[in-house]
């Protein structure tokens, strides 16, 4: 006797709440159906329903007021780092009044809409349970055949396949139409042109200490030390300082000449002083951790590790390219100066990346 021989079915009367049969090994048990519906207080008490209605309306009114507050914050508060435009929020610290006001008001507006909708659904909308019996969703062969026949008939009547001029020009129009969006996107801002490839470093530009702002002499760099530098024409008071330092920042390291494994890297340095981009080639984080004995630098964001003694090649982590190197020598006063731009675009790779 098979297991199917031990299975039986019991048909339940509709009045008993049954919706089919349940077969189990060795017998059958009754489908319990749905439990008796229990009305909510708002279903039987009109005063409670009115109170719930007012509560839902209150949430929606709060959302409208928050939206008005959002617009008011946008008009009243001005962006900028000035102290007049910031507010102290514990434990965050100083926060822009504009950002704080926009964030709070928009959050309250969205939350109030959601809270009102949820309260409406739980207290006033119908909560009657209904069962929908499962049924096949696949169309019958006759319906599918009719759909295909109607499509073929419509294509024939339209002359789409026969009138090639109309067909080809229509396809051309649909292909060209998206170009209008390209024009709109172009108007969103200036093209980057060569800004993604080149930095401010040019031949003859001196390197200055990022902390002191003074020119850096080769004799100031000790073996095993790491020094951060930037172009001499860059100042923290410049309006575009953050934009420029994100590409122009340099780290200087001095190695014993015999420790430098890459010949080109040695040729681009000066008496063991090497200059590399400070910007990680993974996602653009500033590199700041240096292991003196191994000559490795570590990106604190995702632990990409570069060997400065071997052309700053990647030895660990998600970075895909070595750190670009800056060719340097000294001027008549012994100050370090660049011989041109970096050996490759700074920061994360983009598209096929020009070398």
TrEMBL record:
Keywords: 2Fe-2S, Cell membrane, Disulfide bond, Electron transport, Iron, Iron-sulfur, Membrane, Metal-binding, Oxidoreductase, Respiratory chain, Transmembrane, Transmembrane helix, Transport
Primary location class: membrane
Transmembrane region(s): 56-77, 100-121, 165-185
UniProt topology in membrane: Multi-pass membrane protein
InterPro entries in the record: QcrA_N (IPR045603), Rieske_2Fe-2S (IPR017941), Rieske_2Fe-2S_sf (IPR036922), Rieske_Fe-S_prot (IPR014349), Rieske_Fe-S_prot_C (IPR005805)
UniProt-listed CDD domains: Rieske
Location of this chain's protein in the cell: Cell membrane
Cofactor(s) essential for the protein: [2Fe-2S] cluster
Protein's UniProt keywords contain Repressor: no
Residue ranges annotated for the Rieske domain, each copy included: 247-337
SUPFAM superfamilies: ISP domain
Function: Iron-sulfur subunit of the cytochrome bc1 complex, an essential component of the respiratory electron transport chain required for ATP synthesis. The bc1 complex catalyzes the oxidation of menaquinol and the reduction of cytochrome c in the respiratory chain. The bc1 complex operates through a Q-cycle mechanism that couples electron transfer to generation of the proton gradient that drives ATP synthesis.
Family to which this protein belongs: Belongs to the Rieske iron-sulfur protein family.
PANTHER family to which the protein is assigned, alphabetical: CYTOCHROME B-C1 COMPLEX SUBUNIT RIESKE, MITOCHONDRIAL (PTHR10134)
Protein name: Cytochrome bc1 complex Rieske iron-sulfur subunit
UniProt lineage: Bacteria, Bacillati, Actinomycetota, Actinomycetes, Kitasatosporales
């Amino acid at each position: 006797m098979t297991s199917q021989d031990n299975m039986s079915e019991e048909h339940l009367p509709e009045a008993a709440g049954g919706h089919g049969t349940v077969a189990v090994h060795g017998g059958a048990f009754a489908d319990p159906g749905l439990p008796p519906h229990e009305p909510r207080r708002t279903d039987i008490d009109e005063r409670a329903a009115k109170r719930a209605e007012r509560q839902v309306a209150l949430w929606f009114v709060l959302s409208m007021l928050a939206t008005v507050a959002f617009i008011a914050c946008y008009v009243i508060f001005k962006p900028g780092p000035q102290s007049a435009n910031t507010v102290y929020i514990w434990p965050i610290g100083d926060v822009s009044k504009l950002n704080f006001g926009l964030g709070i008001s928009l959050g309250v507006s969205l939350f109030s809409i959601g809270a009102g909708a949820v309260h409406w659904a739980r207290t006033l909308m119908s909560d009657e349970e209904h069962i929908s019996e499962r049924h096949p969703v696949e169309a019958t062969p006759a319906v599918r055949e009719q759909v295909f026949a109607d499509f073929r008939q419509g294509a024939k009547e339209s002359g789409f396949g026969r009138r090639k001029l109309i067909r080809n020009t229509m396809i051309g129009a649909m292909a060209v139409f998206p170009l209008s969006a390209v024009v709109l996107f172009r108007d969103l801002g200036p093209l980057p042109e060569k800004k993604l490839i080149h930095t401010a470093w040019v031949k003859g530009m001196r390197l200055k200490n990022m902390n002191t702002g003074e020119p850096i002499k080769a004799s100031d760099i000790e073996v095993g030390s790491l020094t951060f530098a930037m172009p001499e024409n860059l100042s923290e008071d410049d309006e575009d300082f953050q934009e420029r330092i994100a590409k122009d920042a340099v780290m200087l390291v001095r190695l014993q000449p015999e420790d430098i494994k890459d010949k080109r890297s040695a040729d681009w340095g000066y008496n063991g002083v090497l200059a590399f981009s400070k910007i990680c080639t993974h996602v653009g984080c500033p590199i700041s951790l240096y292991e003196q004995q191994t000559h490795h630098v570590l990106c604190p964001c995702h632990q990409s590790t570069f060997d400065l003694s071997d052309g700053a090649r990647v030895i660990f982590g998600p970075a895909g390219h070595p750190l670009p190197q800056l060719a340097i020598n000294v001027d008549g006063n012994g100050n370090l100066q660049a011989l041109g731009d970096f050996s490759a675009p700074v920061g994360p790779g983009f598209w096929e990346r020009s070398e």
